[in-house]
Design goal:
The chain is α/β, with parallel strands linked by helices and 785 residues long. 31% of the residues lie in helices and 16% in strands. The chain is built from 25 helices and 25 strands. The strands form 7 sheets. Strands 10-15-14-13-11-12 form a 6-stranded mixed β-sheet, with helices on both faces. A 5-stranded parallel β-sheet has the order 4-3-2-1-9. The chain has a 5-stranded mixed β-sheet with strand order 17-25-24-19-20. Helix 7 runs parallel beside helix 8. It binds 1-deoxynojirimycin (NOJ).
Length: 785
């Protein structure tokens, strides 16, 4: 099973992240999932450190062993904690193995000094922090980065985050969040890579490779922590921390692959999640932690619980006291207890009473020490405080932040203006702009929901950047409303500013810290406060309007998509928000982001995702824009008051140019299931090579992310109407054509069957090369026995 799973994950990525002969995109080579230049996953264990761990284990008391499995928050808490603060004393006694939430070299060194110089065995502490989309140089939020469909770029952002955070002594980040999520109500959808397991796996791999570098013991590498294992993205109703029900089949086919990719990339640690999965809390689930993660995937690193997740086993109802909670979590496979303090309070006693074998404690301690050795903490426990400031916000990091922001912007609509072409890019005849909206001159929100050490003052806002471009006298700024509140006077001012300008740019959306990320589920996904009213009043002036949407999720704005000529999804773009937005608005850069998730029309459609099953009653040609008129229109899988289709499909994103897809060709018209199953276990070679020709038919250079999808019909388990099996970004000059090639491995045609085996079966196959998940050029082929 191991080799099969391993190959399935690696080969699928390797083959499908295929290359074209000449692209400017940062895609991978045809046969490696690891962007070029990276020598491969950093190794966690070596014979030398394992020997040292044996020696240490022989010397450690039971309490000192338990101490390695205990972690507390010593800074800005990221949830209600235990109230403990006597860390100095505990560290000296060897009762703490790791600390989270401090963020400066001085604080780190102060704690480390106690561990290394005053504790009996001198074992260094491990310091962790949520470095989610940058440390000091804030990049776009992860959902935005995913919209770049550019794993190599994401890897570079993670490398910068590693360099900066390690300079502050932080050698461990609680990132990447690789939870698949299909529900925009869930605030944490902002922290992940969207809804697709294939894209999510490529991105998971990229983050780990970026954080951990080629050597984990390099001083500027940090340990990654893919999270939250597992199923957290499927919380019922999109309500944070809620329960999850996912069949094993769906778990394996959709939710596990990004975790597998992160583990295969060498992730040193992993975080167990808050949610229950099919009734069993994930932080006490032996099936996922022990059987799959350690048994099938041979994960050697640390499993850390999420914040107080061990304590929460009592609220879940599977433990009536702290000792039982500690025992259940520990025996299921959670090595380290983040903040609950229950391992500290009970684990030694559980060993003494025989309820927990000491050998299991030794195994967990070994994993913790293994990561500390792998990071080189025993040789270099301290951080050079004199190098800290210099590592931050380096010019090349800021340049990368701007490129990243530019690539994450998704142009959703760009209508023609009467007598002219599309509204965007703004033409050079635009001399004055009304800049309106609560996010137009906002620096803090641009940094996103997990801004780590990012500071608003390092940023130039959209207003500041526009003023530099047009001269401040030509930017008529009116806030128009707050994010959540506003007055008629503010709206009247905005209308007046619009009337005096050539174009209005509205910057509307969510409050990053309060409305997106953790504990920020929403039941309504419209514009908050008075913003919808503001938008309608500004549009009513008749002036051309560009709407920039800042959000951690898709927003349901049917009115805006109908009435506003140009709309761009901007997520939260990070420290270079202003410059990146202005360059795209004026056409210095052509937008190229594509949606990493399905954008719903209304909340009632959620969860809505492209890789869904067809059902037994698909609506086919039924007109879903009106209520059913007869029984043929009624008894199909539909809403009577809403369409099934999304506002924008997964993979969608416009450009200032246009692309033509043509000449799809396959090197075979038949495949054999037997050969494909053999290939699953055998050599790394493509089962099918697909090519197509993409032409830039417009008058501007542009980048396009070409997507490859398959559908299997006639299999023993129903398969999605489409599944992404490859993508690549290509750059095309006006009029230029390029041939793209996707060498697909057997995994592109394999799935998890009813017995949870990964197999290829005879099937009718439809294959698309497409600009998004709803269109494309297609061909059919057959998989015979
Ligand atoms: C709780 C969150 O769920 C998790 O993602 C985060 O890493 C921890 N808190 C630590 O801050």
């Amino acid at each position: 099973m191991k080799s099969l799973l391993h190959r399935s994950a690696v080969l699928a990525l390797a083959l499908a992240l295929a290359s074209t002969t000449s692209t400017t995109s940062a895609q991978t080579s045809a046969h490696s999932p690891i962007p070029s230049g990276n020598p491969g996953p950093a190794s966690l264990s070596n014979p030398d450190s394992e020997k040292k761990i044996d020696e240490l284990l022989r010397k450690m008391t039971l309490e000192e062993k338990v101490g390695q499995l205990v972690q507390y928050s010593a800074g800005q808490p990221t949830g209600p904690g235990t109230g403990r603060t006597d860390y100095a004393d505990m560290i000296q006694k060897g009762e703490i193995g790791a600390i989270l939430n401090i963020a400066t070299a001085r604080e780190v060194n102060a704690f480390q000094k106690i561990a290394v110089e005053k504790s009996r065995l001198h074992i260094p502490l491990l310091f962790g922090l949520d470095v989610i989309h940058g440390f000091k140089t804030e990049f776009p939020i992860p959902l935005g980065l995913a919209a770049s469909w550019d794993p190599a770029l994401i890897q570079q952002t993670a490398r910068v985050a590693a360099r900066e955070s390690s300079a502050s002594g932080i050698r461990w980040t609680f990132s990447p969040m690789v939870d698949i999520s299909r529900d925009a109500r869930w605030g944490r959808i902002a922290e992940g890579a969207g809804e697709d397991p294939f894209l999510g796996s490529a991105i998971a791999h990229a983050y780990v490779a970026g954080y951990q570098g080629s050597r984990l013991d390099a001083p500027d590498s940090i340990a990654a922590c893919p999270k939250h294992f597992v199923g957290y993205g499927a919380v019922e109703g999109g309500r944070d921390y809620n329960s999850v029900e996912i069949s094993e089949h769906t778990l394996r086919q959709f939710y596990l692959p990004p975790f597998r990719a992160a583990v295969d990339a060498g992730a040193a640690t992993l975080m167990s999640s808050f949610n229950s999965l099919n009734g069993v809390p994930s932080s006490a689930n032996p099936f996922t932690l022990d059987h799959i993660l350690r048994g099938e995937w041979h994960f050697q690193g640390i499993v850390d619980s999420d914040y107080t997740a061990v304590m929460e086993l009592m609220a879940h109802g599977i433990a009536n006291d702290g000792a039982t909670a500690a025992r259940r979590a520990f025996l299921a496979g959670v090595d380290m207890d983040m903040v609950s303090s229950l391992y500290h309070d009970h684990l030694a006693q559980l060993v003494r009473s025989g309820e927990v074998p000491e050998a299991r404690v030794d195994e967990s301690v070994r994993r913790v020490l293994r990561v500390k050795f792998a990071l080189g903490l025993f040789e270099r426990p301290y951080t050079d405080e004199s190098h800290e400031a210099g590592a931050m916000l380096q010019p090349e990091s800021i340049a990368l932040a701007r490129t990243a922001a530019e690539r994450t912007l998704v142009l959703l609509k760009n209508a023609d203006m009467p007598g002219q072409g599309p509204l965007l890019p703004l033409s050079s005849s635009v001399k004055s702009v009304a800049l309106i909206g609560p996010l137009a001159d906002d620096a803090a929100d641009m940094l996103g929901s997990w801004a780590a050490q990012g500071r608003p003052l390092d940023e130039i806002t959209l207003r500041g950047s526009l003023a530099r471009r047009l001269g401040s006298e030509n930017v008529r700024y009116a806030k128009g409303s707050g994010i959540l509140d506003g007055t008629d006077e503010q709206i009247a001012e905005a209308v007046k500013a619009t009337q005096q300008a050539d174009v209005a740019i509205l910057a509307l959306g969510e409050n990053a810290a309060e409305m997106t990320g953790e504990a920020a589920s929403r039941a309504f996904l419209g514009l908050p406060g008075h913003q919808q009213l503001l938008l309608e009043k500004v549009v009513a002036t008749g002036k051309p309007v560009v709407l920039l949407l800042f959000s951690g999720r898709p927003l349901t704005l049917p009115w805006a998509f109908e009435h506003v000529p140009a709309v761009m999804a901007c997520w939260f773009p990070g420290v270079q928000a202003g410059p990146a937005l202005v360059r795209v608005l004026f056409g210095d850069v052509n937008p190229s982001g594509k949606l990493p998730l399905t954008w719903p029309r209304s909340v009632g459609q959620e969860p809505l995702y492209y890789n869904a099953l067809n059902t037994g009653r698909p609506p086919g040609d039924v007109d879903l824009t009106r209520p059913p008129q007869n029984i043929f229109e009624k008894y199909v899988s539909r809403y009577i008051d809403q369409q099934n289709s999304p506002q924008f499909p997964f993979g969608f994103g416009l450009s200032y140019t246009t692309f033509r897809y043509a000449n799809l060709s396959l090197d075979k018209s038949k495949l054999s299931a037997k050969d494909l199953n053999d290939l699953l276990h055998g050599a790394t070679k493509p089962a099918l090579t697909v090519t197509a020709e993409i032409t830039n038919t417009g008058s501007r250079s542009g980048e396009e992310t070409v997507q490859c999808y398959v559908r299997l019909q006639g299999t023993s388990v129903a398969q999605p109407v489409r599944a992404l099996v490859g993508f690549q970004r290509i750059a095309l000059a006006p009029g230029e054509s390029k041939k793209v090639t996707f060498p697909l491995g057997p995994e592109a045609f394999a799935f998890w069957d009813a017995l949870n085996k990964f197999v290829v079966e005879p099937a009718k196959v439809t294959l698309w090369i497409a600009p998004d998940s709803s269109q494309g050029i297609r061909q059919e082929l057959e998989i015979t026995k």
